[in-house]
Amino acid sequence: MPEESLFDALRREPDVEAPNLYSVDAADRLVLDTFDQHPGIDRAAPIAVIGDRYGALTLGAIALGSKNVRVHQDAVTGARALELNAARVAMTGAYTQHELGAELLDGVAAVLMQLPRSLAELTEIAEHIAAHAPAEVVLLAGGRDKHMTPAMNDVLRRSFETVTAGRGRQKARVLTATGAVASGMTYPVSKRIADLDMTVVAHGAVFAGAGLDLGTRLLLEYLPKMLPHARTAVDLGCGTGILATELARSRPGLQVIATDRSAAATASAAATAAANGTEISVIVDDAMSTFESESVDLVVCNPPFHEGAAVHTGGASKLFAAAGRVLRPGGQLWTVFNTHLNYRRELAEAVGPTDSMGRNSKFTVARSVRPSERR
Question: DSSP letter at 51?
């Protein structure tokens, strides 16, 4: 196992930092120990790392002697965290970033990964490994016991001949899969939402898949009321791009941008817009960090209420602050959120005067207006 000092140096930046959120967990450590002790992996061959949250798997594998490490991280925040952590431990340039596909997986001896909580995401990853990696590849997929289910084994068995669960340690476990068998690709999938007259396209990693979550459904009802004279609009945390697509097709003169930290989300949003004959721009970004201040008229957002597996509202707070910076004076942020979270004060502080525009039994829709003068 790599020296503990390596892990001590790692941070979550630019992701949310909090006492109950960690940059390294027991699953990272167990995957690396299993890799280090596995007798059947060619140590001179390339390896792939998938879903590394903050760099522990990538940098740990390099510390164990791996010379050709290829990485795929769906979240741009994860890629940035890895970059920053590599600099902290003098490993800048010791790995390469790739999209999920042949460039990442061709010729690799092993794949190290954190198990995603979504079975859809796991399915897409497993199918790519089976399609593009050698048949003799060894997959080591780690997770926390409380987030692992027998269904994960079933998903992996559709793409690998053998799947075994290792012994648990510190409430973590590693699934080892061998004998890759390609059987075609399930994702992206598409679904027709009849009452919206919209086709939704989704990759496996996207929240709610190709369906329509209840919060977004409620927010859609208010689109006609959202700043009618807006010239530019952003679907912030766009997911499959349902809000962006509806804005674009209902307001032909509006410039619509869909942005998310997830590459799978922005790819899904672009495909959803295309499937419905609309044109939008898509940007993979961390809370509009590359957007100029005071450059947007309207922002719509269905914010997350978790960070990975932990229930935490820090991600939503980051999006609210970003909207406050990016909106022009008089611009509006429209959000939908679980009513019990009571974001109104936080929205008022981050953006400006905030009013409840409507609610149902579970969700509230709020409008925040950026003042003409900064406070």
Answer: S
Q: Does the pLDDT of residue 3 top 80, yes or no?
A: no
Cis before 14? omega within 30: yes
169 alpha-carbon distance from chain centroid = 27
Strands (E), the chain: 47-50, 69-72, 95-97, 110-114, 138-144, 160-165, 172-180, 189-193, 198-202, 232-236, 255-260, 281-284, 296-301, 306-307, 310-311, 327-338, 354-359, 363-369
| 3-class DSSP state of 326 | helix
Tell me the per-residue pLDDT of 95-146, one tens digit each, with 9 for 90 and over.
999 999 999 999 999 999 999 999 999 999 999 999 999 999 999 999 999 9
Amino acid (1-letter code) at residue 159: S
- pLDDT tens for 326-336 read 999 999 999 99
Average of per-residue pLDDT values in the chain: 94
Distance in angstroms (rounded) separating the CA atoms of residues 317 and 333: 13
Print burial letters for 261-300: b (CB count within 10 Å at least 16), e (below 16).
Answer: bbbbbbbbbbbbbebbebebbbbbbbbbbebeeeebbbbb
Q: Which residue has the higher pLDDT, 308 or 317?
A: 317
Locus of tokens 């490993």? 91
* 3-state class (DSSP) for residue 307: strand
d(CA 102, CA 124): 13
Residue type, 265: A
Among 51, 73, 47, 82, which Cα is nearest to 61's? 47
Tell me, what DSSP letter sits at residue 223? G
Integer-rounded Cα radius of gyration of the chain = 21
**Gap between the Cα atoms of 290 and 80, Å rounded:** 13
- SS3 state at 267: helix
pTM for this entry: 0.92
